[in-house]
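Hi R.,

As promised on Friday, here is the backbone we talked about, encoded as structure tokens. Could you run it through your design pipeline when you get a chance and send me back a sequence?
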């Protein structure tokens, strides 16, 4: 069986899945695993609160269990990493969360990471996760652009706010590497990096790259 990585968008916004799929193009290598991006239609339009994150855990875990025989690895493409540990109990294959992978990747590229988030409640949720991981000493800050998942398609408005927020994380908070705090931001990585002159980690790419390494190394 050809190895495959299933990247699951836990929200029901197909435009977010499409943005993730575009970000995957750089990782679709000849001879490498197939990368499939799917949308959880059972999910909310955007995962913007702890309730949203928790609400999708059971359908997400059930979906992973149904794909256990035809997938080699799974990536949960939401920066809340909903159901990550529960999902790992539903399969023997690797399950990666994009937030966990993004933080780990960022720490290989700089001393202090800054996160560009969507909404203020996201900042609090991310802060809890950073403390749980024990990496808060490496966090420069987390700032929201004030736009929800569905609004991320408004390209000019979103990009302006992301660049402004990235510069604040750099100049005021001391970040030397940035993380995009939502999978729906994937399309803006290169433009933000160029404008802010810092490395920018796109979480879905980070997670899939780690999944590919896991598969390669057995």
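Update: got your reply. Pasting your designed sequence below so it's all in one thread:
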């Amino acid at each position: 069986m050809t190895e495959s990585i299933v990247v699951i968008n836990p929200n029901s916004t197909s435009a977010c899945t499409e943005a993730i799929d575009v970000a995957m193009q750089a990782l679709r290598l000849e001879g490498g695993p197939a990368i499939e991006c799917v949308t959880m239609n059972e999910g909310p339009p955007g995962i913007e609160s702890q309730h949203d994150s928790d609400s999708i855990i059971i359908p997400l875990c059930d979906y992973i269990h149904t794909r256990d025989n035809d997938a080699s690895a799974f990536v949960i493409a939401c920066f809340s990493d909903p159901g990550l540990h529960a999902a790992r109990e539903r399969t023997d294959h690797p399950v990666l969360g994009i937030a966990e992978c993004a933080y780990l990747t960022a720490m290989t590229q700089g001393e202090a990471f800054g996160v560009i988030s969507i909404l203020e409640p996201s900042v609090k949720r991310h802060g809890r996760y950073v403390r749980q991981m024990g990496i808060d000493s490496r966090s420069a800050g987390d700032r929201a652009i004030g736009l929800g998942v569905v609004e991320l398609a408004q390209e000019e408005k979103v990009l302006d706010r992301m660049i402004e927020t990235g510069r604040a994380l750099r100049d005021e908070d001391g970040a030397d590497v940035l993380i995009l705090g939502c999978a729906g931001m994937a399309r803006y990585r290169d433009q933000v990096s160029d404008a802010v002159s810092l490395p920018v980690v796109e979480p879905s790419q980070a997670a899939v790259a780690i999944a590919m390494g896991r598969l390669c190394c057995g």
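One thing I noticed while checking it: The chain has a mean pLDDT of 95.

Thanks again,
M.
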